[in-house]
Structure formats: structure tokens, C-alpha cells
Write a structure and sequence with these properties.
This is Putative restriction endonuclease. InterPro entries: Nuclease_put_TT1808, Restrct_endonuc-II-like, Uma2. Keywords: Endonuclease, Hydrolase, Nuclease. GO terms for molecular function: endonuclease activity. This protein has one domain. The strands form two sheets. It has a three-stranded antiparallel β-sheet. The longest helix has 8 residues. The chain contains three helices and five strands.
Length: 69
């Protein structure tokens, strides 16, 4: 399995119209090749295969919950 790791400079346009920029995301390379070059210059129109969102001790649970949904 070949994946591309993306950091928080990458954003994703989800099917529900939400835009998310997780701390770390992985997308399978075979899924990325289906994205047109013009689409790659903006938020990627796909849901990442793996998402990691880091929480700090000062983050409140309501805010984290909202970020994840």
C-alpha cells in the first residue's frame, strides 16, 4: 500500500461541503491519481483514508467534538 502523508497545509473538501484541514492525513496514492491537476491546487475533493487530529491540554472537549464532525 503506497500512501501520501499530508500535513496541516493540506485541506479536504468533504462530500457534505465541509472543509477540513487535519494535523495529519494519509491518502492512498491510487485515489490521488484520480484527482485532476486543477483540483489538486485547491482543497482536495475527497475524504482521507486516515486522519489524525492532535489535542492540547487547553483544548475543550466541545471544541474538539465540533472539529471532528
Amino acid at each position: 500500500m503506497i500512501c501520501l502523508r499530508l500535513d496541516l497545509s493540506a485541506g479536504f473538501l468533504l462530500p457534505n461541503g465541509a472543509i477540513r484541514s487535519p494535523d495529519l492525513a494519509r491518502v492512498l496514492r491510487e485515489r490521488l491519481v484520480t484527482i485532476r491537476p486543477k483540483q489538486k491546487r485547491r482543497f482536495l475533493p475527497l475524504v482521507p483514508d486516515v486522519v489524525i487530529e492532535l489535542a492540547s491540554p487547553t483544548d475543550d472537549s466541545d471544541g474538539l467534538h465540533a472539529t471532528l464532525h
